[in-house]
Amino acid sequence: MKKTAFLSALGLSLFLVACGNDKETATNVPNDAPTEQETGSNTTTNNNTTNAPFTFTHFDLSVDYADNKSYDVDYENENSVVEAKIEDDLNNNTVQGDSAMDQLLPIFENFTFDASTADEEIIDEVLKAFNLSTDYREFDLDVRFADGVEKEVKRQQ
Fold first, then answer.
1. How far apart are CA 56 and CA 51, in angstroms?
2. Does pTM top 0.85 for this prediction?
């Protein structure tokens, strides 16, 4: 009986440790980065973007190329939990968490577009920032700015 209880407790502990270890979670995010807060049925944003290093809470990019290759970026800052991931099929490389934030932060800080920027300008700026080729098959970007405005940019070639 003691052996069964011990094994059950050990299994539960290992399960909880595995579930709590989200590799996409980043901790090296600027304190003044915009954060989306869920409060019951309402969503509010810490949108003091005057001094913020960038102006969005979500950045979801997918650029598809020939031969089923793609470049994907997922960034989300919700309830003070930041998740970041870069999946680069072009170079067979995936980074997440703090390693992804180390690469994303200088790129995000240099973005100049906002929700009113023309789609083509955003596409050009994003491709250049990530050093991606313009011969993509599909470009798909979803951004949620600190003021709650969402911008979706999609192009197929």
1. 13
2. no
